[in-house]
Amino acid sequence: DVQLQASGGGLVQPGGSLRLSCAASGLTFENHAIGWFRQAPGKEREGVSCIGADDGAKYYSDSVRGRFTISINNAKNTVYLQMNSLKPDDTAVYYCAADRDVATAFRAVVTGQAPPPFRSWGRGTLVTVSS
User: Fold this and answer.
1) How do residues 61-92 score in pLDDT, each as one tens digit?
2) Bridge partners of residue 128, in order along the sequence
3) Sequence-separated (6 or more) residues with CB below 8 Å from residue 73
4) For residues 1 and 105, what is the distance between their CA atoms, to the nearest angstrom?
5) Strand-pair partners of 127
6) Where is average pLDDT lowest: 41-45, 80-84, 91-95, 126-130?
7) 115: cis peptide before it, omega within 30°?
């Protein structure tokens, strides 16, 4: 049974930082692309970042580039999203997802394909940026 668990969300003031984690069970990230998505109330789900587990290739959406950093610890089978300089517009439920079709996964995040064709999804973690 494949499970992805996103954690690390919370309430933070504008300009603050959070680190999200995505841990997998029943699945190893080898040969996968892992993406981070977010969905704010009343808005479509948005892909914010993606990483290739094997080659470390990374993608960031324009809205987070320069502020967010995605990384992977293959030994811990965990992907991280370090979020700095947070803004109120970053408030959303954040989800992680994984898929073996790395090229298609990256293309989906880059083009904003909806729904994103990732096979495995975790439950989200809420990030609230507010003073």
Assistant:
1) 999 999 999 999 999 999 999 999 999 999 99
2) 11
3) 79, 80
4) 21
5) 10, 92
6) 41-45
7) yes
